[in-house]
Amino acid sequence: MAGDDDLAAVHPQVRALLRAMGDISDPGTLEPTPADLAAERAAYLDSTIRLGGAAEPVASAVDVVIPTDDGARLPARLYTPLHAPDARELVVWLHGGGWYVGDIPTFDRVGRSLANASGAKVLLPEYRLAPEHHWPVQVGDADAIVRWARAAGAEQLAVDAAAVTLGGDSAGGQLALVAARHARIDGLPALRELLLVYPCLDPTVASDAMREFEHGPMLTKADIQRCWGFYRGDGADDDPDLAPLVATDWDGVPPTRIAVAGQDPLRDDGLRLATLLGDAGIDVQQRVFEDMVHGFLRWGGVVDATGELIGWLGDGARDADGVRSQR
Predict the structure, then answer these.
(1) Ramachandran region of residue 230, left (φ > 0), alpha (ψ -120 to 50) or beta?
(2) How large a percentage of the chain has pLDDT more than 70?
(3) How distant, in Å, are the alpha carbons of 17, 50, 59, 122 from that of 116?
(4) Could you say which of 11, 151, 156, 193 is the most buried, measured as most Cβ atoms within 10 Å of its Cβ?
(5) What is the CATH number of the domain that holds 127?
(6) Would you please indicate which residues are annotated as catalytic (active-site) residues?
């Protein structure tokens, strides 16, 4: 883990959390056993339960199943906001976790809080995880989820197919961005907005932030390289479905909100995307949580900034037409 000098710029709440965690920067192996994966996934869930705080009450939380083009059936949960049980707006949230950890229980608190903050229903799906499944399986799953939410699923979920916002954090942010680009040409109602939290977008891991925070805090360059290694399969660095920042055609991408953590090796991925979208004439709003580290979206029980982030995302989903460039 980063030393005390490296933590000087980190918020005291997060600094105490990282010290309590001890040495968390162990990249492990690129060929984990099933037992290794099960342990990592269990630890990821355990950290969320310990740090996530009380789960907010919602009007309902209902499990559904989403079909994919290749016959898979993806579990998902629909959260209806406590004070807006008849909401017709929908936020689809693709969870983070390096494409290899994370699931509905791990992001249950995020789904609940985002539903109440946005006043919209929130659909929290699972996609097939690496390394059991490699790119582009996860992209296909994300596309299927986003299509379903604006087609057959809209009636089942009692939402307006023309009032769907898409979002995701970290690895889920990469999938959300790729799916948003694909949704431009699928013939279904346009997405209202795109919400991204510290998205992981560059498999070359060559940014200034990657060098600055190579050893953390929280997330290291080696951790990120391991995640890309699990996920990418035979994907190439010049394929925008793997590496979205190489894309040159951004027309039709919905208005976008991008939040990044200032003490995160992935910081520049999100900031570079904001610049690209702005230069392409897309309405984009970015927010830098300067003293935060990667992962704080899930730490609502111990980090005040988590509530600020959820509120900011909720505001965007409430007023998708109100996003304006603040580059």
Answers:
(1) alpha
(2) 92
(3) 26, 21, 9, 9
(4) 193
(5) 3.40.50.1820
(6) 170, 264, 294
